[in-house]
Amino acid sequence: MKKIFAALFAAVIALCFCSCGGTSESSAQPSQGSAEAAVSAKPLKEIFEDIKTQVGIENLTELSNVRTLDRYYGITEDKVSEFAGGNNSSGVSQEEIVLIKAVDDNAAAEVEASLNDRYNSKLEQSRNYNPEQAAIIEKCKVQRDGLYVSMIVSENADRITDIYRTEAGLK
Amino acid sequence: MKRFTALLFVAALCAALLCGCAEGEPVFKNAEVPGIFSSDEAAKAPTSAVVEPDAQATEPTQAPTAPPVTQPTQPVTRPATTADGSVVASWFDDAVFIGDSITTTLDFLCAEDENLLGNAQFVCADSLGFNSAQWDLNDPNNVHPTYKGKKVLAETAAKITGAKKVFILLGANDLGTWGLDDTKTAVKSFTSKLFANSPNIELYFQSTTPMITDKESDYLDNADIVEFDKWLKEYCDQNGYHYIDLYSQMADPTGALRIDYCDDPDYDGIHFTMDACTVWANYLKYIVANPSGDKKPENTVEPTYADPYDDTNGDTYGDAYEEPYEDTYEDYGNYEGYEEYDN
User: Fold this and answer.
1) pTM for the predicted model, two decimal places
2) Terminal-to-terminal C-alpha distance of chain A
3) Best residue in B1, B19, B30 to probe A by mutation, most A CBs within 10 Å?
4) To probe the interface with B, which of A13, A16, A19, A65 has the most B CB atoms within 10 Å?
5) Does B302 have pLDDT greater than 80?
6) Contacts from A151-157 at CB under 8 Å and sequence distance 24+?
7) Which residues contact B22 (CB under 8 A, 6 or more apart)?
8) What is the per-residue pLDDT across B135-178, written as a single tens digit (0 to 9) for each?
9) Based on the number of CB atoms within 10 Å of its own CB, is A110 exposed (0-12), middle (13-18) or buried (19 or more)?
10) DSSP reduced 3-state for B15
């Protein structure tokens, strides 16, 4: 009897240890901000360079300093893990690309809200001033995928979005 | 008995080490086996089975911090003005710029270079004017600027930024739409609201700036702008505000915007290039230190003239070189060697 109990106890111990090693499969399930996205994601700055090269974007003043995110969008640096992007510096084109990886889900939600405010402001300012640019803005949007939040306003938005989502592992 | 129990325990441990905690698929899945960890908790529990091999996994989750600043061993004295009599860029640290799309380019430039206007802040929007700045914040047609992502009334710019000096460049979006008289009225009411929000500011009105000749129209031309600027200067003199003649700084000898300063020759013909904004910033640093100066300071940036071969200038290529190519093409038929190909 004692032997049986000892064997059962050992089996239970073995099973308990087995259960702690099963995370790789569950984390491989696709989910927002998952390890699977991190495995295949390029750094945002590299993605942005690829976008500029492949799409041929010029005349962008790049977001070189994380403090500029606060300046333009009210996004403080404590919310940001990575960022890349830029604004067209002319007073006419509304082209603006902002790619942000937030530090956590709460921060990502706040970043998304901030970029939506910016998007709506661009649209309001352009409607009467520059209807052509307003039409471009209306076809674009702010998008969130887990910790990744993007605002891609460009006449080449579809292509830029495709490059970004592919290289960030969001597809 | 004890030996048997111990052997069983060791065997169980070995089995667990081989199949449970190693990377890769476990023998038993969380969902199937009740254990200490549920599947959700197991996903959150830090284990070596979580795979993050790429570079991003090593990056800190917090935003990167600036490198530590080395404190100087002796106090650094900054001169009030530089050798040419201009103020240093940090003079603008307590300044805010209120403007339209012309100022947004200056904003972009200064965001990347603190050597221009220090930490000056900007509250500007593309269609902003003295009139539209006073519309309701939620007016369906509003074009209000944003400050740190939030829509604000321009009249609160000094209040929300804490600025002591306010620089205004507006008017281009007023004169054509509302006319001179309504624009004058809007200037007065906007100024009143600005001081109501921030009574102790130092106010600098920058003259509305010129446009290139090709884009003058019945809607707006340089004569309208000059007339408004003349009134604006009188208004400033009467009320003790600073007036900065930016128009003359950016104009060519004919009074139009210098073509090499114009970023949109095929659109409004009124927006500045980044080089022109550098000229603007350097002029401001000079003129605030020398308000009576009537000499244009030498441009510190060599203006970049439009390259007619540069396609990013739109039709410049065709406009500048259409005729020579036509003539060349017509003469091409008389080219001695061409007959060979004709046959």
Assistant:
1) 0.70
2) 57
3) B30
4) A19
5) no
6) A151/A96, A151/A97, A151/A98, A151/A115, A151/A118, A151/A119, A152/A97, A152/A98, A152/A99, A153/A94, A153/A95, A153/A96, A153/A97, A153/A119, A153/A122, A154/A55, A154/A57, A154/A95, A154/A96, A154/A97, A155/A95, A156/A55, A156/A57
7) A21, B49
8) 999 898 899 999 999 999 999 999 999 999 999 999 999 999 99
9) middle
10) helix
Instruction: Give the number of residues written for chain A.
Output: 171
Calpha distance B138→B135 (Å, rounded) = 8
Query: Would you state the structure tokens that stand for residue B150, as one six-digit string?
Result: 């939030």
Q: If you count residue pairs, one on A and one on B, with CB atoms under 8 Å apart, how many are there?
A: 225
Domain B89-303 class, CATH top level: alpha beta
Q: How is chain B split into domains, by residue range?
A: 89-303
ipTM entry? 0.75
C-alpha to C-alpha distance for A51 and A57, rounded to whole angstroms:
8
What is chain A's Cα-based Rg?
22
Of B271, B178, B265, nearest in space to B215 by CA: B265
**Residue in A18, A40, A41 closest to B26 by CB:** A18
